[in-house]
Specification:
This protein is of the alpha/beta class. The protein is built from 3 helices and 3 strands; from the N terminus they run βαβαβα.
């Protein structure tokens, strides 16, 4: 069995950094971050992350929480 965490974010870089750091400290196989079309420095920061458990899904449009989690679940299924 594998464990995946899905995080949906939109312009909350400080909170995202905390969340990702805490998840990386856990025994999680995959961390899927869905960037819901952030316009802050979130895409730049995500591009610098190198942990192989981290998978980034970048949406062109903000799909809301439900749309973000749908994209995250699809990525988890395909990972």
């Amino acid at each position: 069995m594998k464990l995946a965490a899905i995080v949906v974010t939109f312009n909350r870089l400080t909170a995202l950094k905390t969340t990702v750091a805490r998840l990386l400290d856990q025994d999680v196989d995959h961390i899927i971050v869905v960037d819901n079309a952030s316009s802050d420095d979130t895409p730049t920061w995500l591009a610098t992350q190198t942990d192989p458990r981290l998978h980034i899904v970048t949406l062109d449009d903000n799909m809301g929480g439900a749309g973000g989690f749908e994209a995250g679940m699809a990525a988890a299924r395909d990972t």
